[in-house]
Write a structure and sequence with these properties.
alpha/beta, 16 strands, about 40% helix, 6-stranded parallel β-sheet, Rossmann fold, globular, 3 domains, 8-stranded mixed β-sheet, about 425 residues, N-(1-d-carboxylethyl)-l-norvaline Dehydrogenase, domain 2
Amino acid sequence: MSTELVVVGLGYVGMPLAQEAIRSGLSVQGFDVAASTIASLNTGQSHIDDLSDTDVAEMVNAGFGATDDPAVLAQADVIVICVPTPLRDDTTPDLGAVESATMSIADALTKGTLVVLESTTYPGTTDDVVRPILEERSGLQAGIDFSLAYSPERIDPGNPTFGLRNTPKVVGGFTPECTKRAVAFYSKVVDTVIPTAGTREAEMAKLLENTYRHVNIALMNEMAVFSHDLGIDLWASIEAASTKPFGFQAFYPGPGVGGHCIPIDPNYLSYAVRTLGYQFRFVELAQEVSGRMPAYVAARAQTMLNSAKKPMNGSSVLLLGVTYKANISDERETPARPIAKRLIAMGADVSFFDSHVSEFEVDGHELTKAFDLGVASEAADLVILVQTHDDIMAAAPFDGAAQVLDTRGALNGPNVERL
């Protein structure tokens, strides 16, 4: 008996796809190599923000199961690869998980299967990395014996408005027939499917989206630094510019960029450009500018304490919100970590408040977690608003704080300085 879909990689990308496919009436199984993930999912427990335990339990009741047995791959009509694509220490792409997943698929691949890569990567990966592994290990030929396509994931964790179904899905196949096959599959689970010229164009589309955001956020970060020195409220200027009904889109400065997309994805494009002998100077400069922001936040914190005749060494600093994005628990690449590291190195006593995070470590040092937001804010010499979780903003614990450094432009008050 065949399975209509097997999702390889059951994280923040793979699980929403599996859920929506089940809701659309497809039979779905999941393949992963993490024993803890498999165990939690099969007992109805979620490990990602966008799915609750109830969501996973409903999936299991509908027939979903997670496994590390590659035999499940041989039964699939469609296999979608949703594994992580991090960077190595030297900022080059680490495709180890993609290659490992592809080898497992190749060893079980049967004629007629559609294989789709969703993991973010540089243009050419589907054709130059995934396809050769599939063909050489299976003895089958892409575009003839099986279909191959790329469709970039567009999951935005914690977004209450746009989920997998109502976010348009870009699809590019190895051949036109592969594209048609992939479009037909995704049309079952996504409202709008956008076919494009091929796998490279689909791969580039994802990197273009995030590089666009990366460069514009870096522009605002750089403007925030000199606007402060010029005595300009950049947040007010952005608000004013946003009134123009054409030709302007608002981006905002912040304490640094976090998550998988903005700090990671543009480096994949930069890597591809460097293989051609060029430098992608916009991306590299944007990375440099945004990478300096945590140090700038620490320097501003020191200046604020100095203005109150307090040294950084020995002062208590409370970080509000330590995830990379509001209202989720994801700490990947969060700027709160380098900020805390810099403050600790300067001698500060750093604590944090975050209802989404139970523990927060910085280089092996576990920060003290505050549980009473109002008491902790009043006790701190300086409060730094890093992330605007709803519960933090609703509690409004800022009036009693001695000084507040607002890195998100969300606050006003005599004790508040905006970044």
